[in-house]
Amino acid sequence: MNHFHPIAQCLEEYGLDAMLLTGEANRFYASGFASSDGIVLVTRGKSYFVTDSRYIEAAKKNVVGADVYVLGRGATYVKALRQLVQKEAIHRLGFEEAVMSVLDYQRYSKVPCTFVEAQKLPSMLRRSKDEEEIEAMKKAQRITEGALERMLPLIRPGVSEKELAARLSFFLLEGGGEKNAFDPIVVSGPNSSMPHGVPTERKLEPGDFVTMDFGCVSGGYCSDMTRTVAVGYATEEMKTVYALVRKAQEAGIAAVKAETSGKEIDAAARKVIDGAGYGAYFGHSFGHSVGIEIHESPNFSPSEPGPVPAGAVVSAEPGIYLPGKFGVRIEDVVIVRRDGCEDITNAPKDLLILG
């Protein structure tokens, strides 16, 4: 799976002779090959993948649709780019202004061509996922759901947040994940009121909510899921808030449709929580795009007035967080379709009382 051709097709629209990709995520998007170092150059007629000796054997086996070059001893990526710019007679070269450091820009800009800010080119392409990308994300989601299934019997009084987080990471990898999509969030009791709390040594107690937010990478693409469960019992307030968050998620998902704005989708979920008097306790957006990176674009957010395209893969994760008491978040991932959306998360959402 690679995207050299779609990038090349956009060059004329952006007034470019070629696009230079130095960021790891966009290099992977273009080439389908993951490496911590290298550059990709896409021209209107040809593509190049340049890396060092650590990756050259794997790159030659896995990169399709581009010429693969290895840096010689003492060579630099700047020198390699200079040679390719001269070879391809490149005058206007797009680069990722949001990714390239000032120091790297100072180095690369010595190459004799005009550097043009063109972060928007790969970013716009990555907004909509093709079916190969979606299949990779579905596989990652199945691995994540398998990890949750193995986690549930372990959630009981006396187990620490850190221990549960470690188990989650292990289950994700043992189940087939390449790595975690992000550090798992496991927070319990009063800690669950922190949306991005860090797992601590706190041990679970009866009457706790436990919020688990986690995902893995499969085929280079991320999954993301949050489930909140209760330990031992749940109070009436806990049940009420949980049901409200679930209702808000359902309302937001029902509003998802291609060309609807992220602001409108967020508002559909937010209206439910606001109407119940908990609006002050839902501070984050309804959802963010997921893909090669765990946070991409577009978003289901009050600050996203533009239309969300078909093929976007976005989380749906409302929450209510009562400081010092508890928090609830439920998160699925949906694919935006022209006539609605496809929820690719199969894990149950009924309130589970465990331990």
Number of strands: 20
CATH topology of the largest domain: Creatine Amidinohydrolase
User: What class do helices, strands and sheet pairing give?
Assistant: alpha+beta
| Radius of gyration, in angstroms, nearest whole number | 23 Å
CATH class of the largest domain: Alpha Beta
Count of individual domains? 2
Helix percentage range: 25-40%
Topology (SSEs and partners):
Blueprint: H1 4-10, E1 18-21, H2 24-31, E2 39-43, E3 47-51, H3 56-62, E4 67-70, H4 77-88, E5 92-95, H5 102-108, E6 114-117, H6 120-127, H7 131-151, H8 161-174, E7 179-180, E8 185-188, E9 209-214, E10 216-218, E11 221-222, E12 225-231, H9 236-254, H10 262-275, E13 287-289, E14 296-300, E15 313-316, E16 319-322, E17 326-329, E18 332-337, E19 340-343, E20 353-354
Parallel strand pairs: 1-5, 3-4, 5-6, 12-20
Antiparallel strand pairs: 1-2, 2-3, 7-10, 8-9, 9-12, 10-11, 13-14, 15-18, 16-17, 18-19
Helix pairs in contact: 7-8, 9-10
Describe this structure in words.
The protein is α+β, with helices and mostly antiparallel strands. The chain folds into two domains: 4-127, Creatinase/prolidase N-terminal domain (Creatine Amidinohydrolase, Chain A, domain 1), CATH 3.40.350.10; 131-354, Alpha-Beta Complex (Creatine Amidinohydrolase), CATH 3.90.230.10. Helix content is 33%, strand content 23%. It has helices at residues 4-10, 24-31, 56-62, 77-88, 102-108, 120-127, 131-151, 161-174, 236-254, 262-275; strands at 18-21, 39-43, 47-51, 67-70, 92-95, 114-117, 179-180, 185-188, 209-214, 216-218, 221-222, 225-231, 287-289, 296-300, 313-316, 319-322, 326-329, 332-337, 340-343, 353-354. The strands form six sheets. It has a six-stranded mixed sheet with strand order 4-3-2-1-5-6, sandwiched between helices. The chain has a four-stranded mixed sheet with strand order 8-9-12-20, covered by helices on one side. Strands 7-10-11 form a three-stranded antiparallel sheet. The longest helix is centred in the middle third of the chain and has 21 residues, at 131-151. It is elongated and about 70 Å long. The two termini are 44 Å apart.
